[in-house]
Every structure is written in C-alpha cells, then in structure tokens.
Amino acid sequence: MYSIIVEESFDSAHFLSGYNGKCSHIHGHRWRLLVEVQTKELQDEGQCKGMVVDFTQLKKDLKKLAEDFDHCLIIEKETMREQTLNCLVEDGFRIVSIPFRPTAEKFAEFFFHSIEKKGYQVKRVSVYETPNNCAVYEG
C-alpha cells in the first residue's frame, strides 16, 4: 500500500458550548491538518505516472477546504443566542456555523469525508488543535 501526506493549516476561534472548563469561552487556535491518502497501485501513465496522486492537486483541494475556516469564529449551530450572533455579524465578524461541535475529533471526521468526496482514497486525517494535541479519524 502506498500513501502520501499533505499538510495545511488555518487560524480560527471557537468555543465548546456546554463544556465545563476554559474551552467554553471563545478562544483561538492554529489548526494543523494532515491528510493521508492511499492506493494499492501507483498511477501507470500520464503526468502522474508512478504517483499515488499529484501532491499539488491534493494540496490545492485541502487548502480550499481549510480557507473556508480561516480567520473566523466557528460556532456549532444553535449554541449562541440569536441576538449575540446578530450583533457579531452586524459588527463585521465572519461567523461560520457548522452542524457539529467544533472539536478536533469532529474536524478530523469532517475533513476526512470532505477530501473523500473529491475522489481521494483517504486513509486518515489528523487535526492538531495545538502543537501537542492531535485527533485522528480513519476510515
């Protein structure tokens, strides 16, 4: 089995609604993503002969996904009062609302399936919330 790994990162803020601790407050991270794709057979013709996939294309696809979350406040849908949310939007803050709790574990799953939908055979996605804390999702 062959595999390659690409890396991307984005900066954003989030909070964990219902969490008993510091993470219940809005705080930021530099999220680091590592995506590993695999194949049993390398491509046997064309520009990508001898490759799993083109690093450049995989990196481009991952970067496009990561950019959606860069420099914003990520919130789980329906965890912030509508009035608070409206004030933030009116003041020009970029809010990204997602249907899951914004944990490293759930982001690993999200990025796994998002890359998979682009036609890659994903082996695993690792999401670092901090340089020392990582969550992994494998298919």
How would you characterize this protein structure?
- With about 140 residues, the protein is α/β, with parallel strands linked by helices.
- It has one domain: 6-pyruvoyl tetrahydropterin synthase/QueD (Tetrahydropterin Synthase, Chain A).
- The protein has three helices and six strands.
- The chain starts with a strand and ends with a strand.
Number of contiguous helices: 3
**Whole-number average pLDDT?**
97
Strand pairing plus helix content: what structural class?
alpha/beta
Determine and state the CATH class: Alpha Beta
CATH superfamily: 6-pyruvoyl tetrahydropterin synthase/QueD
- N-to-C SSE string, H for helix and E for strand: EEHEHEHEE
What is the correct CATH architecture?
2-Layer Sandwich
The rounded Rg comes to 17 Å
Mass-distribution shape: elongated
Main sheet attributes: strand count, strand direction, barrel closure: 6 strands, mixed
β-strand number: 6
